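Would you mind writing out the residues of a protein together with its fold in token form for me to study?
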Amino acid sequence: MPEIRSVREVIVAQDLTRRFGDFTAVDHVSFTIEAGEVVGYLGPNGSGKTTTLRMLLGLLLPSSGQAQVLGYDVVRQAEQIRRQVGYMSQKFALYHDLTVGENLAFYAGVYGVMGRKPQDEVLDLVGLRGLERELVSSLSTGWRQRLALCTAIVHKPQLLFLDEPTSGVDPDARRAFWDLIYTLVDQGVTALVTTHYMDEAEYCKRVGIMRAGRLLALETSSILKEQTMQGSTWDVFLDGQPSQGLLPALDALEGCACVRRAGLAGDHLRAITPPDVARERLEAELLQAGISEVRIERVEPTLEDVFLALAAPDS
């Protein structure tokens, strides 16, 4: 195994593009990730997140553009990259008819990791010690998730690619998994994590937002909110009215002259207005539209608000 190169910029992508026939899955994406960062790659399914990861791993050749990972070229030196990077795929690439211990031993062998000590260390880290004899097919999704992480870090990589690692697990397991990610980061690991959960991106130092193959932005969540949401964010509750009244109220809200954008937000509505709009004006315009008994609260924007603003047709 070649000596790990000491580089501050662990990933550098320039105009990275991948086409499948006439379809462009990743469209001239450029970004840099520094050592020690946790970067969230946020976007809906089909936005190009996984294709980007596969190019960075050297599993898929770019149609154009270039990238370096840990100082290695993704086209010419893909094998060196894969030896030093941990990759956890969406499907948790595990053998269900093998035990926890057998799966981990297999991946340790693939990476050339000798002895039991490295395997025991990662089992302790993720809380799987004592389950070595359990068949993977008998594990819950949350435990499979942890085992998949074990197989990705048994060779002590300095960079982790985690592709939708919390998809399909419950909220408690999702939070526990992010605790594990930061435990690894405290040990010097850099992580690039794809997700379609908007709330998870708040855990990341920086957030990249993908849509239709394009990287719309890559910044800290606070800067994204400040630069993108140039206005006020309001939650609008229909007090004392049945939930089926939300859609007529949404139509009314979208028709208000002071509202830039409106949408559903669970059991209430969310509105974005220019910064100089007061609550009283919003209430008055809704009342004029026939919507009364509303409770309006000013709130901090979320990354979902940022995504919707960036993905809007006129953005």
Remarks:
- Residues 17 and 27 are 5 Å apart (CA to CA).
- The first helix runs from residue 49 to 56.
- The two ends are 47 Å apart (CA to CA).
